[in-house]
Fold:
Amino acid sequence: MKNFINILTAIVIVLQLSSCGTSSDPVKIAKEFATAFLNAEYDKCNKWMEDEEFTPSKEMSSMEKAVVEAIKEEAKKMQYITTIDNEFTTIEASYADVYFDVTSATDTGFNETIRVNLRKDDNGKWYVDDYKAF
Structure:
């Protein structure tokens, strides 16, 4: 029984540490959000936002699901690559504006920019406040 409690305690500590890493690094959150957005993984996008902005997949109409699937297929073909643009990125104590250059592994002419704005809440957790694809 003691071994079981020790193992359970170790698992809880590992889970807490791994979740802290995600919520304390605004650049990592911005990158995960941008990647999810480009790949039409909107449930993941909602996870990093204070308020759900995207219709959860379980609530989508058949038309919405078809559109999302088409976007996902296009993303697979494009193989998007996101690279942080340090020239325009700003990280402060309570907010961050992270810019990414988005290119494609399969379309050398593709070049877009995504800006992800993050804010820190009263508990010190970063969340996506706004985003824009240029």
In short: Helices lie at 2-24, 26-38, 42-47, 62-78. Confidence is low (pLDDT under 50) at residues 12-22.
